[in-house]
Automatic annotation (TrEMBL):
Pfam families: Epimerase_2 (PF02350)
UniProt protein name: UDP-N-acetylglucosamine 2-epimerase (non-hydrolyzing)
Family: Belongs to the UDP-N-acetylglucosamine 2-epimerase family.
Sorted UniProt keywords: Isomerase
CDD domains hit by this protein: GTB_UDP-GlcNAc_2-Epimerase
Gene3D superfamilies linked: Glycogen Phosphorylase B
Record EC number: 5.1.3.14
Gene source species: Paenibacillus aquistagni
Taxonomic lineage from the root: Bacteria, Bacillati, Bacillota, Bacilli, Bacillales
Signal peptide: none
Keyword Zinc: no
Length: 385
C-alpha cells in the first residue's frame, strides 16, 4: 500500500537562502511519491530572490511579498510571522525546512515551533561566538538551532559547536554545504553575462577583483575605511579592474558613490543575478568581501578571499587557508591585497587551499536524512568529511 505523502514546507526569503535551498527542493521533487513539497517565500528580498528561482526553474506556492523600502528588522519579523501563521494553519505541514541565519529563517523556525511542527535547519551550527557580529545573524542562527529537530551541519566544526552547546548527537548530521551544490550546478565554462558591462571586461589580461560589501555592522567609519582601501588598490595597480555590484541599501549606495564612483577601473554595478555572480567569481583573481556565503562560493573556485570583517562564522575557510580575516582597517586591507597582487607564492598558497565546505552532494544527503526521519529508508547517508 502506498504510504501517504509527507508535506515538506521549505521557507526562505533572501537570495542567499534561495540559492542554497533550491538544490534541496529540486532533490525533494525527485521523490514525488513520498513528498508534497511546498515552497513559501517571504519576499524579504525581491528582485534577487526572483532571479534565483528563475535560474532553478521553481515557482513558489506562497509569496508573502513583504519587502518594502527601508524595512526594519522588527517589520520583517512581524510581517513574516503573521503571514506564515496563516499558511501553517491551512497547510498542516509535516516538516518545515529553513536555511541559515536570516530573519526569514528565524521566523520560519519559530512559526513551526508555535504550530508544533518539526523543523529542519539547513546550515546549522555556524558560530562566530560574538552575538553582534554578524548582526543580527549570529543570534538568529542560534534561535533556529534551538527550536530545530533536524540539524544539518555543513561541516564537522558545525557539529562540534552544536555538541558543545548541548544538542544531542542523534539530531545532528554533517551534510556538506548546499552552496557548493548550487555553485557547481550554475557555473558554466562558456558563459555570457546578463549584465552586458561584464562581457566587456578583459578577464584574460586584467587582474579582476570582485568586491561585495553590505553588512550593517560595517556601516559608517568601517565602510569608509573599506572603500578607501579599494580605491587605493585601484590607484596603485594599473592592471587591476575592480568589479563591485553595489548593494541596494541606501547607506551602502551613498558610501560607494562618494568614494568609489568616477574611477575608470572601478566598475560599480547594480546587484547581479545569481548566475552572473557565480560566474564572475569563477573568472576573478580574488575577492574582497564582508559576506558570509561568499566564503563558501569562493572556495568552490579556489579564489582567495580577503574578508573585511573581524569575525567569521565559517572558520573552516580560514583554517584551510582560502580566507584571511582582514578586518576593516584601510592599511591592513591594502597590505593584504598588495601581497596577493605582488607575492605569487602567497597567492598560490591561498588559491590551492582545499575547499572545506562540500562535494556537491549535500542536497542528496539532506533528503536521504529526511526520508530516514519519516521511516522511508533504513539507512542514513555517509557524512561529509
Amino acid at each position: 500500500m502506498q504510504t501517504a505523502r509527507r508535506k515538506v514546507m521549505v521557507v526562505f526569503g533572501t537570495r542567499p537562502e534561495a540559492s542554497k535551498m533550491c538544490p534541496v527542493i529540486k532533490e525533494l521533487q525527485t521523490y514525488t511519491n513520498y513528498f508534497d513539497t511546498k515552497i513559501v517565500v517571504t519576499g524579504q528580498h525581491r528582485e534577487q530572490l526572483d532571479q534565483v528561482l528563475e535560474v532553478f526553474d521553481l515557482q513558489p506556492d506562497y509569496d508573502l511579498n513583504i519587502m518594502k523600502a527601508n524595512q526594519s528588522l522588527a517589520y520583517v519579523t512581524s510581517a513574516a510571522l503573521e503571514g506564515l501563521d496563516g499558511i501553517l494553519d491551512k497547510e498542516k505541514a509535516d516538516l518545515i525546512l529553513v536555511h541559515g541565519d536570516t530573519q526569514t529563517a528565524m521566523v520560519g523556525a519559530m512559526a513551526g515551533f508555535f504550530h508544533k511542527i518539526p523543523v529542519g535547519h539547513v546550515e546549522a551550527g555556524l558560530r562566530s561566538h560574538d552575538k553582534y557580529s554578524p548582526w543580527p545573524e549570529e543570534m538568529n542562527r542560534k534561535i533556529v538551532d534551538t527550536v530545530s529537530d533536524l540539524l544539518f551541519a555543513p561541516t564537522s566544526l558545525g557539529k562540534t559547536n552544536l555538541l558543545h552547546e548541548g544538542y544531542q548527537e542523534e539530531q545532528i548530521f554533517i551534510t556538506g554545504q548546499t552552496a557548493v551544490d548550487a555553485a557547481l550546478q550554475t557555473h558554466k565554462e562558456e558563459y555570457v553575462f546578463k549584465e552586458s558591462k561584464l562581457n566587456a571586461v578583459d578577464f584574460n589580461h586584467s587582474t579582476v577583483i570582485t568586491v561585495t560589501a553590505h553588512r550593517r555592522e560595517n556601516y559608517g567609519e568601517p565602510m569608509e575605511q573599506m572603500f578607501q582601501a579599494i580605491r587605493q588598490i585601484a590607484d596603485s595597480h594599473e592592471r587591476v579592474q575592480i568589479v563591485y555590484p553595489v548593494h541596494k541599501s541606501p547607506v551602502v549606495q551613498e558610501h560607494a558613490a562618494s568614494i568609489l564612483a568616477g574611477h575608470d577601473r572601478i566598475m560599480l554595478l547594480d546587484p547581479l543575478g545569481y548566475s552572473d555572480m557565480i560566474n564572475l567569481l569563477s573568472c576573478s583573481s580574488f575577492i574582497l568581501s564582508d559576506s558570509g556565503g561568499l566564503q563558501e562560493e569562493a572556495a568552490v573556485f579556489n579564489k582567495p578571499l580577503l574578508l573585511m570583517r573581524d569575525t567569521t562564522e565559517r572558520q573552516e575557510a580560514v583554517d584551510a587557508g582560502g580566507v584571511v580575516l582582514a578586518g576593516t582597517n584601510k592599511e591592513v586591507i591594502v597590505g593584504l591585497a598588495n601581497k596577493l597582487l605582488l607575492d605569487e607564492e602567497f597567492y598560490q598558497q591561498m588559491a590551492s587551499s582545499k575547499n572545506p565546505f562540500g562535494d556537491g552532494k549535500a542536497s542528496q544527503r539532506i533528503v536521504q536524512i529526511i526520508r530516514h526521519h519519516f521511516g522511508l529508508v533504513d539507512e542514513l547517508p555517509e557524512e561529509f568529511l
